[in-house]
Amino acid sequence: MMRNLIAILRGITPPEAVDVCAAIIDAGITTVEVPLNSPDPLDSIAAMARAFGDRAVIGAGTVLTTHAVGQVADAGGRLIVSPDCNPAVIAATKARGLASWPGVFTPTEAFAALAAGADGLKIFPASMMGVSGLKALRAVLPAGTQVYAVGGAGPENFVDWATVADGYGIGSALYAPGDSAAQVAEKAAKIVAAYDEAHG
Predict the structure, then answer these.
(1) Which pTM was predicted?
(2) Active-site residue, 33 included
(3) How confident is the model at residue 84 (pLDDT cuts 50, 70, 90)?
(4) Which of 41, 182, 183, 193 fits a 20 to 30 Å CA distance from 135?
């Protein structure tokens, strides 16, 4: 089963990346991003892509420049997630054949991202927009636009967000620096169960 969940491993280090990633995939989450403000993020991405590139989509988050897009692609990443809407980053992502998920918060940003070629939209911070805000935004977005809620959407409120969001990016509820693979596995299982209950 393909679940619309992106595991955000902010702060992960290369020595633990493969074991933590394995725990997440085994729990049923098959999209994983390493934010570029983590320690040696390209090394972690490369290690996870080598180990699990045939079972999961591995990529980077907090991608702010076109140069970084190239670095992630060269490391084997297939996903670019940003906190902002930068048309140049989106264009560079698509030029390398990667999936583009820019962060947006306003209708202007959302339409600019789609015009630049984004595969989907990351509503960030979702806690500030809220379910009602995203419902209003969706009313004007093109039909079929994929929208993920990030920052405030989690297992405790998937049921509420499921009425307006296609998926979620999950960070601190899944992984905090220093967590063991076993701890992450336990948290991932709870997140997957809550997702399955909310999305049927």
Answers:
(1) 0.97
(2) yes
(3) very high
(4) 193
